[in-house]
Amino acid sequence: MARTQDYDQLLRRCYTESLPDQVIASCSLVISRGAADRAELATAFKNRGNAYDDKGEYARALEDYDQAVTINPLDADAFNSRGTTYTALARYERAILDFDEAIRLNPASPLAFSNRCFARGALDQLEQALTDCSEALHLKPKNPGALGSRAFIYLKLRRYEAAIADYNSKLRESPDDAYALFGRGVAKYMKGDLRGGDGDIVASQALKPDIAEDMAKLGIRLQSLR
């Protein structure tokens, strides 16, 4: 099927729009037209999946990622994206399988290593997680995502000074990260800095009122510290 200027504009919007609803609309038209080659079609599904993930529509995101990796099984980013959606659903074992494949396809991806670090940490596979975060930071030093994930692992390992150092670095880049503030608060509290710990925890709860519940699901329980 011949390419048209209209189709090329749709494809460009599918690839470059920043607002999820606009991405979904543009990529849906690309997909429905059937004019894309296989690589373009796979990317349209992946980008639409990313937009659905941004909106919290995880079932739709997974459907699109499934299509993307079926059409193009060499797309490491699609496997990584699907893994992050499984992580959001707390399906950590399944997420790790996708991160494994993303790393196999692209062993120089700091994002996939950082994401697998977090998923392994959620499952208390702490030493493996720490190895992954170290590799992510080797590939991309001062990576805020990897620093946040490694801080979470250090917190679970009760290495509180190391956790605080990584949370400090993370918060310099993302000062409104509720998870980092809560984690640093817990680490400070466990080191005996009750005032500093309470300050961070209160700040995190102002940003995300249910942060304590989310962290409890990850094995970090505030009530057990008091």
TL;DR of this structure?
The chain has helices spanning 5-16, 20-33, 38-54, 58-71, 76-88, 92-105, 110-122, 126-139, 144-156, 160-173, 178-190, 194-207, 211-217. The protein is mainly alpha-helical and 226 residues long. Among the domains are: 1-56, no CATH class; 159-225, Serine Threonine Protein Phosphatase 5, Tetratricopeptide repeat (Alpha Horseshoe).
What does this structure look like?
The chain has 226 residues and is mainly alpha-helical. Among the domains are: 1-56, no CATH class; 159-225, Alpha Horseshoe (Serine Threonine Protein Phosphatase 5, Tetratricopeptide repeat). It is built from 13 helices and no strands. Pfam families: TPR_1, TPR_16. Keywords: Repeat, TPR repeat.
Descriptive labels:
226 residues; mainly alpha; Serine Threonine Protein Phosphatase 5, Tetratricopeptide repeat; 13 helices; elongated; repeat
Work out the radius of gyration: 20 Å
Number of helices: 13
β-sheet strand percentage: under 5%
Task: Catalogue the unreliable spans.
Answer: none
Task: Let me know the largest β-sheet.
Answer: none
Name of the CATH architecture of the domain at 159-225: Alpha Horseshoe
Structural class: mainly alpha
According to CATH, what is the class of the domain at 159-225? Mainly Alpha
TPR repeats: 42-75, 76-109, 144-177
Keywords: Repeat, TPR repeat
Pfam family, one: TPR_16
GO cellular component, one term: cell outer membrane
Draw up the topology in text.
Blueprint (H helix, E strand, L loop, with lengths): L4 H12 L3 H14 L4 H17 L3 H14 L4 H13 L3 H14 L4 H13 L3 H14 L4 H13 L3 H14 L4 H13 L3 H14 L3 H7 L9
Helix pairs in contact: 1-2, 2-3, 3-4, 3-5, 4-5, 5-6, 5-7, 6-7, 7-8, 7-9, 8-9, 9-10, 9-11, 10-11, 11-12
